[in-house]
What we know:
This protein is an alpha/beta fold. It has helices spanning 18-25, 34-47, 65-72, 83-91, 108-117, 127-140, 178-186, 207-226, 252-262, 276-279, 312-316, 406-411, 424-429; strands at residues 4-7, 10-13, 16-17, 29-33, 54-58, 77-80, 99-101, 121-124, 144-151, 173-174, 191-197, 233-235, 269-272, 283-294, 299-303, 322-324, 334-340, 349-357, 364-367, 389-393, 396-401. Helix 2 (34-47) runs parallel beside helix 9 (252-262), helix 5 (108-117) packs across helix 6 and helix 8 runs parallel beside helix 9.
Amino acid sequence: MDHFQYRDGRLCAEAVPLARIAEEVGTPFYCYATATIEHHYRVFADAFAGLDPTICYAVKANSNIAVIGTLARLGAGADVVSAGELKRALAAGVAPGRIVFSGVGKTADEMAAALKAGVLQINVESEPELDVLGQVAGSLGVDAPVAIRINPDVDANTHEKITTGKSENKFGVEWTRARAVYSRAAAMPAISVVGVAVHIGSQVTDLAPFRDAYVRMRDLVAMLRADGHPIERLDLGGGLGIPYGDEVTPTPEEYAATVKSAIADLDCHIILEPGRVIVGNAGVLVTRVVHVKEGAMRTFVIVDAAMNDLLRPALYNATHAIVPVTEAAAGTELMEVDVVGPVCETADTFGTGRLLPAMKPGDLLAVRTAGAYGAVMASTYNARPLVPETLVRDATYAVVRERMSVDDMVALESFPPWLAAPDKAAREAGG
């Protein structure tokens, strides 16, 4: 369910025509619908109402402070994986006591920032990290609230690049070593063990791996408590998948039922870290047709967005629905085309063999379900500036990240002392 629908033949975000934003802001740009973000958060929260969990939005899915702030005002906490995401969450109004700091490679400075901010807990991924955290906490004179992330060796049946719970993945402590690591942590000064954490991957569309992992964590909690560890919290991570097309995926209610059945009567405070399921289909990438090229084998619709703006198709072979911003009339003949960008990579392809009405330069297309892992993964490859992000509420919109310019990018760079800067007049003359 989303709030991008045609009204009088114009694709709108809530009540704002996307063509209006394109005219005023330029293309490409991202657009997010507040109503969709709020709806999905409430549906997810309602599904778990009986457990009264702490819901920490996974900031890595979309780290724009306006998006985080929208969720914070609904009561969401934040799951962060870097000092930068921590700063964004705090700037967006998330209470420090509702922030979980995750991530496999935290630096000592990041640990210190988290402890000084007063986060809810730090999810420790390894024994070396535990040692460093103990040193950092000791130097600050505080106790670090710790949940140790366990790798349950469960295959999430998702894309190989976003699975995180198998034994060969870099994440977490092997579940067979968990009791030894907890015993070690309990003996460390400045470390306060408060819970167990697990996260098996992203875009998981089968509930069975969740069930397997959570049952394993339930049994582990029982063993740890028998060893004398006061396990108060169970962080179940995130990863619930969403439909990018016509595929059927589990609902939050079905996911919640799986959680409840796996951890029944455990008496732990539950932490959940949804990301994609909240913001995925709350966003679109709007792009303009530059050329239509008739190739020997294919027709190419070349647009002004590129893989640097939306990396998922190139990185994951991901499929996103692509629709015209102006609705085609009933009975319009559709053409099979490839929608591609201008970057000098064959991977810069948004969709192959797509059925679209005849396109011409200047027409607008919307790449759907681009609210998660879209703008947040963008780069400046080919010296292409980062594009704007906009947020709609009802009949109004705001630019929540300005378009970067090439001059902005160049201004961050400089010549070293051994290279004389080119003379301005010579540069302008092309000399």
